[in-house]
Specification:
The chain has 346 residues and is α/β, with parallel strands linked by helices. It is built from 13 helices and 13 strands. The strands form four sheets. Strands 8, 9, 10, 11, 12 and 13 form a six-stranded mixed sheet that branches.
Length: 346
């Protein structure tokens, strides 16, 4: 189940836009509805429908209907009154260091200058932060500034962003603090902003032209970087390049087999991988090997060891190869052999 979260992003990124329900088939599902695993008020919460949607019922059971919404299928209550308003589990408030805070404020100001009122970031991408629990605690991790009016695209973007947030946590990263997505309908507006931002993401702002090739994949990749670097611990202490790039590669990969083959083609020892720079512009095989090391830590070694070590790195503790080796018993040859054997079985 945990592993499925990491590659759930793929289904949202690659799936073609779904056809809308035929006239007469759809019913309005009001904003604020909670999608549940069963037609019961105390059933586990799966998702939160944050704006009214016209959805085709798949099944009806009393005051409940079964529907498909984004990447989820579940039950919503449509008669007999609405549920109690869900509680918000807000990310902890934090303030970046003064120089970075000024840079972020300058980027948001630039958004307003280019897009006008549409450049004001608004809450976006709400999701259930504790799926499987009957109580629906919700989290707002993102804001969106856009002049794009394609509702279907924005729904897919919301689903992709939420999946990236969940996949990162499954890999041992800290939950997202915040990030702003800037999506431009005009290429020249995107170019003007990106000249200011220098990269597709910077200081928690991810920006792209809506007509760009592989739009959702590129936003998901950049969003993973932005979220990795959004925490005060990381801003104060930095994050290893292999961990930052490895997470970003994993959340958008379309083929685990291809990633494994690419990682196997790179013979660099783990000690060199951990200690040397790994970047978006580096060799694909090196990035793939970093991604598979992240996955190995999360799934081969289990949360008590691998995820625990990854989480401690996000909290600012020692990220050196010596620290990693110590967490896994201190024998370099054994760790190399175990990683190679695990990689060959993927």
């Amino acid at each position: 189940m945990k592993g499925a979260l990491v590659f759930a992003v793929l289904g949202i990124l690659a799936a073609p836009p779904q056809e809308g329900p035929r006239d007469g088939d759809a019913i309005p599902i009001p904003a604020g509805s909670v999608l549940r695993a069963a037609a019961e008020r105390d059933a586990p919460a799966l998702a939160f429908i944050d704006e009214t949607a016209l959805l085709a019922p798949l099944e009806k059971r009393g005051e409940w209907v079964k529907v498909r919404w984004e990447s989820w299928v579940g039950w919503v209550r449509v008669a007999g009154g609405s549920e109690e308003p869900p509680e918000w589990d807000e990310p902890e408030a934090w303030s970046p260091p003064a120089p970075r805070r000024a840079q972020r404020e300058a980027l948001v100001k630039k958004l307003r200058e280019i897009l006008g009122p549409a450049g004001e970031p608004k809450p976006f991408g709400s999701y259930v932060s504790n799926p499987g629990s009957p109580r629906a605690y919700l989290r707002r991790a993102f804001t969106l500034a856009t002049d794009v009016e394609d509702k279907a695209l924005l729904r897919r973007l919301s689903g992709a962003c939420v999946s990236v947030a969940r996949a990162r946590v499954a890999l041992g990263a800290l939950p997202p603090s915040s990030a702003t997505i800037a999506l431009f309908s005009r290429r020249e507006d995107a170019a003007a902003f990106l000249t200011e931002a220098e990269e597709g993401w910077r200081e928690g702002v991810v920006a792209l032209w809506a007509g760009a090739p592989d739009l959702l994949q590129r936003i998901a990749h950049d969003l993973a970087h932005a979220l990795n670097r959004s925490h005060p611990f990381v801003q104060a202490n930095g994050i290893p390049g292999w961990l930052d790039e490895g997470i970003a590669e994993l959340v958008v990969t379309g083929s685990l087999r291809a990633l494994c083959e690419s990682a196997s083609a790179e013979s660099v020892p783990l000690a060199a991988l951990v200690e040397e720079p790994v970047t978006c512009r580096g060799p694909a095989a090196r990035r793939a090997r970093a991604a598979m090391l992240v996955r190995y830590l999360a799934y081969r070694r289990g949360s008590a060891t691998g995820n625990g070590w990854t989480r401690r790195v996000f909290l600012g503790e020692d990220s050196s190869y010596g620290s990693l080796l110590h967490a896994f018993g201190g024998d370099a040859a054994t760790l190399e052999r175990d990683f190679a054997a695990w990689l060959s079985r993927q």
